[in-house]
Each structure stands twice: as structure tokens, then as C-alpha cells.
Amino acid sequence: MKRVRYCVAMSLDGYIAGPAGEADWIIMDPEIDFREYFSQFDTLIMGRRTYEPMAKANQAGPDTNMFDDMKIYVFSTSLNQADYSDVTIVGDRSEEFLKSLKQQSGKDIWLFGGGQLFRNLAQAGLVDSVEVAVIPVLLGGGIPLFPPPANQIKLSLTAQRQYAQTGTMSLEYAVQNETVR
């Protein structure tokens, strides 16, 4: 069974993107082996607000898409599949779709960006781990990691690592899948 892992960078004050969705504050730590990290996944899921800027950036320059070896699903009720041949658009019944996807064999599923998508899937008990790279910056506003309204979700620390060169702190938590109401 595949696991859904929410892997995301976050500012010290709890934001995964700046007020306009910017991510230029994220430090690419030279100690992290991104090739090895990406090899743990064969599936990438994200919401429309994460996907659209990525798609636009990919069209602007040479094909440097780091997700080429992954099946990509975009959860959106407003995008039309006919307009996006490189990804699969998942509209209605996204929770049922993800439950089915988790039952398939293969590598883990990377929940990439999207605080609202994370919140909705976590509240439905579909996220297995939360893996946050805490970047040493205070944004003062933006898109929160876990936007309201939300119910509390209990986590259990499974790993931690400090990257001394950049000051980034990597924290990994297992989701206890018991939503507190």
C-alpha cells in the first residue's frame, strides 16, 4: 500500500508560500540529495493553485521538470482535462480517488504544496506523514501550512535533522489519523 506523504517547505512562522504564492525564500540546501529524495515517489498530487504556476514556469524555459518520472494528478474542480495532456485532472470524488490510488502497488505518493488540499485530505484521514523543512525565515504572512477552518490532527515525531550550513530543520511526523473535533 502506498503512503501519502505531505512534503513541504515552511517558514519559521508557519507559511508554505508568501502572500502572492511566492517561494523564492526557500533555500535549496546543498546537503540534501534531491535525486535520492525524489526516487522515493512515483506519484505526485497537488491542487490547482500549486500546479498552475509550475506549469507556467515549465513552459517559460527549457524542460527541467524534476517530476518527469512521476504520474501527476491535479485535484481541481475548475480545470478541464482536455487542456492538460501532461497531467490527470481529478475533479469530484477526490477522496475516493486517493483511497483507490493508495491501494495500488509502487512507491509513495508525494502531496506537493497546497495547504487547503493537505488540510482536506488530512481531515479525511488520507495523509500518512507530514515532512516539513523549516526554513529560517519569517514571512509575516502568506499561505499557511494548515489553513483554517480545521480540526486538530495529532502527529508523532519520527525523524529530525538539522542542516548546519543553511539552518534548515527537517521534521518528520507520522499522522495518528485520529482527528480531534
Secondary-structure blueprint:
Blueprint: E1 4-11, E2 15-17, H1 34-38, E3 41-47, H2 48-60, E4 71-75, E5 88-90, H3 94-103, E6 108-112, H4 115-123, E7 129-135, E8 143-144, E9 152-163, E10 168-180
Parallel strand pairs: 1-6, 1-7, 3-4, 3-6, 4-5
Antiparallel strand pairs: 2-8, 7-10, 9-10
Any overview of this molecule?
The chain is an alpha/beta fold and 181 residues long. It is 20% helix and 36% strand. Strands 5-4-3-6-1-7-10-9 form an eight-stranded mixed β-sheet. Helix 2 (48-60) links the parallel strand 3 and strand 4. The longest helix has 13 residues, at 48-60. The protein is globular, with a radius of gyration of 16 Å. The two termini are 28 Å apart.
Enumerate the strands of the largest sheet in spatial order, edge to edge or round the barrel. 5-4-3-6-1-7-10-9
Strand content: 35-45%
> What sort of overall outline do the alpha carbons produce when their principal axes are compared?
globular
Order of helices and strands: EEHEHEEHEHEEEE
> Major sheet, described briefly?
8 strands, mixed
Tell me the total number of β-strands.
10
Low-confidence stretches: none
pLDDT averaged residue by residue: 90
The portion of residues assigned to helices is: 10-25%
Distance separating the two termini: 28 Å
What's the Cα radius of gyration? 16 Å
Provide a count of the helices. Answer: 4
